[in-house]
Amino acid sequence: MVIAKISLIVLFFWLQVNFFIGKNGLYEYVQLYNKNLKKEENILNVLNRNKELLLEIQDWNTSDELKEEFARSKLGMIKKGETFYRIV
User: From which residue to which does any coiled coil extend (predicted)?
Assistant: First the structure.
């Protein structure tokens, strides 16, 4: 009877250890859960950035002022008949 009690206690502690820190245990579950939350947050950030880029593309396709501003500031272009003055 004593051997049965001792073996049950050992079995209980062995199961507890495996449940908490063993392979596929609670510790690993919590780590994977936290990693999953970070990945989901990253995905949401990427989706939001994609929406912003799609809106920017739509602006580029519809706005002539945006194209003109880009041509003037980045490419150094001027309209016909304009005189360019560089102030040093």
Answer: 30-57
